[in-house]
Specification:
alpha+beta; DNA polymerase, domain 1; four-stranded antiparallel sheet; 9 strands
Length: 423
């Protein structure tokens, strides 16, 4: 049973992601930390007809403190005692006249963790950051002033064409030192932004702001992502580029991260967010609790384990940043320095992922095996009872890593092969 105590600042600060603390003095009053880090004060109650309701009081911080949120919870419970339903009244009052206002309501609920993804989990902080950028840079400039009820499929088509043709393209300074925002538009941006727009209008339909979704049925262009794989010559060039980068004293953890990506086929974000606590080198297994595809168990090749063993442990993150204890935010620039003059401009760290999967296919491994190696959506090992990768996947990881190292011109490691006795 969850322990209840009076919610204060220490309680709020101690909350872990997706954890909720219930107050001991006001029934149903709680504080919940979302996966993105924000804390929201909530009230759970039952209406006079027995229906359970959740009401979000507001986010922690100005103006809501634990004491002010607790007082608001008491006031709301007084309304419930008078046979009123504050959650339903709040919902009924949430009406957006313009698309800009609709986006603000959608964004507020997304940040508060009210909106669930297909995995029935709140949106991640990185997804919220992308959504916020698309709303502010594309949707509001082109559709923001339109009435929610007046938007048609033809308007969505026109919006999509505008983003594709670069009508929202803009270069502007950000608040960061020497920061520059470069909005380009294009087919990929149009496709992904229309996808978000569809979710926003689905939200509008669910909240009674209109009867239909004007995005439904609109054909989106391909998002422009290329599944680029390295050729044998490009693998060799990558190996030489890493050697030159090491001689030029480019940040060693960045070089190790590039090599790790080539040996594992992981997503860049998964590697850069990898923590030592998630690795079991004895079992050659990494257990990633929260990836794009959910909980994922990844086999680690011997080559990848050797790479990890050579890294110094300067913090919890495996691939340390140049400054501070956070992630290596400068990795894209470090990759550009490594690749400059050696690799084509269209090769990115994601190309290493596709190349790894392609090499595995070349070696004859099945699609389910490849999906388990790289953590493809729908094919990851997600059982809560498993704690290590099996021998088949470990052997496959070893073989693909061995072939990758060979293409990059690295010497093959010696292997001890037991000989059968003559007797």
């Amino acid at each position: 049973m969850t322990e209840r105590k009076r919610i204060g600042l220490r309680t709020v600060e101690a909350l872990r992601p997706r954890q909720i603390a219930w107050d001991a003095s006001v029934p149903g009053f709680g504080a919940r930390r979302q996966s993105g880090g924000a804390v929201a004060y909530v009230l759970k109650f039952r209406t006079s007809d027995g229906r359970q309701r959740w009401h979000t009081i507001g986010r922690h911080g100005a103006p809501w403190t634990p004491d002010e949120a607790r007082d608001e919870a008491r006031r709301l419970l007084g309304e419930v005692a008078q046979r009123r339903d504050p959650a339903a009244e709040k919902q009924a009052g949430r009406r957006a006249e313009t698309v800009s206002e609709l986006c603000d309501l959608y964004w507020a609920d997304a940040v508060a963790g009210v909106l669930m993804t297909r995995r029935r989990a709140p949106k991640k902080a990185s997804t919220l950051l992308s959504d916020g950028g698309r709303i502010e840079k594309h949707i509001k400039p082109l559709l923001g002033r339109m009435k929610v009820r007046s938007v048609t499929s033809a308007d969505v088509e026109l919006f999509m064409r505008g983003v594709t043709e670069g009508k929202t393209a803009k270069r502007a300074k950000t608040g960061r030192k020497r920061g520059l925002s470069n909005v380009r538009g294009g087919r990929g941006a149009a496709s992904r932004t229309v996808g978000l727009l569809g979710a926003i209008f689905t939200y509008a339909v669910r909240n009674g702001m209109r009867l239909d979704n004007p995005v439904r049925g609109v054909m989106r262009p391909a998002d422009g992502r290329r599944e680029r794989r390295l050729s044998d010559a490009e693998y060799q060039a990558l190996g030489k580029a890493l050697q030159r980068a090491a001689e030029a004293a480019i940040w060693p953890p960045a070089l190790a991260a590039v090599r790790f990506l080539s040996l594992t086929g992981w997503r860049s974000g998964e590697a850069l967010g990898l923590r030592w606590s998630e690795i079991d080198l004895t079992r050659r297994t990494a257990i990633l609790a929260d990836t794009k595809s959910g909980r994922s168990i990844r086999p680690l090749s011997r080559a990848a384990c050797d790479l990890l063993l050579d890294l110094p442990r300067v913090g919890d993150l495996v691939f340390a940043a140049t400054r501070g204890q956070g992630r290596m935010s400068g990795f894209p620039k470090l990759w550009a320095r490594i690749a400059k003059g050696s690799l084509p401009a269209d090769l990115t760290p994601h190309s290493l992922r596709h190349s790894y999967a392609s090499l595995a296919a070349d070696l004859g491994y099945s699609e389910p095996t490849i999906a388990a190696l790289v953590g493809h959506k729908g094919h990851t090992i997600t059982s809560r009872y498993l704690h290590s990768a099996d021998a088949v996947l470990l052997a496959a990881a070893d073989e693909v890593a061995r072939r990758t190292a060979e293409l990059m011109g690295e010497p093959r490691s010696a292997e001890v092969v037991p000989l059968r006795s003559a007797g």
